[in-house]
Amino acid sequence: MTKEYDIVIIGGGPGGYVAAIRASQLGFKVAVVEKGKVGGTCLHAGCIPSKALLRSAELYAQTKNARAFGIIAPEVGLDFSLVQDRKEDIKDRLFKGIQHLMKKGKIDLYEGKGSILESKDVLIQLNNGEGEVIVSPRKILIATGSRPRTFQGLEADEKYVMTSDEALEMETLPKSIIIVGGGVIGIEWASMLVDFDVQVTVLEYADRILPTEDKDVSKEIQRLLKKKGVKIVTGARVLSETLEKGEGVSIKAEHKGKEVSYSADKLLVSVGRLPNVEGIGLDKTEVEMNGMFIKTNEFYQTKEATIYAIGDCIGGLQLAHVASHEGIIAVEHMAGENPNMLDPTLVPKCVYCSPEVASVGLTEEEAKEKGFQVKTGKFSFRAIGKALVLGESDGFIKLVVEEGTDKLLGAHMVGPHVTDMITEVGLARVLNATAMDIAHTIHPHPTLSEAIGEAVLSIDGKAIHG
Ligand code: FAD
Ligand code: NAD
User: Do 292 and 265 fall within a single domain?
Assistant: First the structure.
């Protein structure tokens, strides 16, 4: 007899495990099949470990600058093994937390690789050679996530070429590094490594780094990273076949019509992530694909009505909070509820470089392309008392608002703690608030959030400190 479940979830990342908890709250009998560790990429090879390293790098850079605060720290050293220990400790604590939540929700966790059978049962090849189990679900949720994309010739090796997976496990820091791709991962690592005193060169194919952010944001973060010493080459087409390994690595890129050679100790490839859709039995189903990704409707149901898919494996915004929200919507839909659909223009996007970047809604360019008559307001952190007190006054807040209706279309931020501040504008957009509603919101003094209020006022030239 195969064990029966209401829902079997393949993949226990922030999509899968959050969906499992919500499903258990809804009274479903749930199992999660996870071939690695629950928590997925986000906890074990993504959000959390990278942010732990970024925090150490930021603190190291700040401590070197302690004299500016009147603090005399004659010798500031770095023990990277302790940095890594701290990262592991944080991962461990959160991992235990998720395991506890699974037990609390009476969710069965199968440690192994799951794949869908012709019968729509799920075959689990248990880890550690413990054999196979077959479970019988009424519904299946695919949440298998993604893995780093590389180019032919630029695959990770034991020594020189890394993706974020290997970079997170580095035992020592290189003296220099080439980062191929100036997207989210590339820029977080550039910021972290330069703060750790590594010489960093970023080679980005587009004409600006963070090319999906507002143009003003890309320009400002490029200026600030260059000020820290990061070499940034945009419009660079990396020629992976020119990679040479020896003392370190060298690689050529086509830049402004010329082939230019770059060399460093190591190379990090951060050019996007591929969905994990192979070997999970999709060929035994009616599930359709959307390019490389699994195709779903707005409730994450695939063409085969009993099979749902969420998170990085369906594409769109590959973010942990998006995967989790999609998981909740999917299981609520399975329960016959009518959950709100996820609107990508309400999703905050954050980059944890130093200073941070955060945005929600449309960029100025996107708003104009969509035909909106747009007005913008911008306010610099230089005029914000709290930013000066923190010693972090680089950056700005930019708001994109519709002429006439005053509707808030987007917010774009570079600066201290903006990844925490973006939620104010996110909530304002959820509530359909106007820019004036934000102006009427009292921002306490002295706080960084005053920059949001001032940015709104600046739209009509009414900023007090601008
Ligand atoms: P995953 O987290 O990838 O989880 C999928 C799980 O499925 C994995 O545990 C995998 O082992 C398992 N699995 C796969 N196939 C099978 C199978 N056949 N059987 C059983 N199990 C299987 N996002 C943010 O929002 N904020 C950040 O700060 C952030 N930082 C990041 C930093 C880095 C370096 C990286 C790489 C990513 C980062 N992300 C961040 C993205 C985030 O990690 C992903 O969007 C998120 O993890 C996607 O969740 P998921 O559940 O869809 O997939
Ligand atoms: P990305 O899509 O953000 O950036 C990839 C970059 O590589 C792009 O700017 C692209 O123009 C560039 N590129 C592509 N081909 C190139 C080439 N041949 N030469 C030079 N540059 C090239 O992807 P990523 O940075 O690898 O991140 C992967 C995913 O992980 C993203 O979707 C992101 O959402 C997620 N992530 C999120 C966070 C966060 O939320 N803070 C952090 C890390 C990763």
Answer: no
